[in-house]
Amino acid sequence: MKLGFVTDGLGYLSFDDMLDTAVRLGIETLEFGCGNWSKAPHINLDVLLNDSNERDVFKQKLNDRNLQIAALNCSGNQLAPGSYGQKHNEVVRKTMQLAHELEVETIVLMSGCPGGGPNDETPNWVTHPILPEHDETLRYQWEDVALPYWESVTKEAKHLGIRKLAIENLGNNLVHNPETLMRLRNEVGPTVGMNFDPSHLFWMGGDPIHAVRYLSDAIHHVHAKDVRIERGHAETNGLIDIHAIDQPAPRSWNYVAMGYGHDLAYWSEFFSVLSMVGYKGPVVLEMEDMTMDPLVGVEKSVALLKQSIPRTFEQMAKSAVRVY
To answer: Domain 3-318 falls in which CATH fold?
Structure first.
């Protein structure tokens, strides 16, 4: 498993400074946001698509530092009704084209969430289908919108040489857990797998270690991200939380740096089981801790990952922190 990083976590740094920081920390591979929910701090999607010289410069800067591309990320809601979903779909398609040009085989994205019916103007995530009309909503979302879309995307991915469409298990999406991922995968084929982000299962009440055993070879990509259930708030209000992510104090749970929600022993078992089921891809840190400076959070998380990911001495030496 190679140690990676989602570059949005240090989006305030220039491209060159971010690359140098990655090298200093012993990062081996990078995941780049290309748009939609990402501000795409280190990729100009249209420029790289349309200018081969810019692509060459981009690749050379990575090669000079012995860094690889783990994946391109275009997470958003391409199934949303109206122009919002259309714009996100355009970025998805452009990201796939860029992946082809850069010879990147993995795209990270969300499944998306449609409206509750053909006349809805906003997405509708059904989590508690207790009314008869909810059955029709779920049928419409899956059969009329999601499955035709993903059949189209999977076909295009194969044409472009993209081997893995890694769908993240994020709430507010049709695919938000292992069961819903397998429903889509069974319909459209093994090009679709999960970008397994353990943090989301924590706040939905699941256990990532159990989920890894269940998913096995359906795991295409892995994000390293932790969650802390906040004492007092969670017991009082439960885990359905509507406070903004950038207001951590009143929340029932928060995304935190690795080790600030679950300890080294937990993560060592998690990565051991991940290896046990045959995963050999990158482990990519996604830093979204709002309680500390981004670089501090990255440094602390990288330190824990180097202790918990099963790696050879040679691999560890190559990713050792470099001091200039």
So the answer is: TIM Barrel (3.20.20)
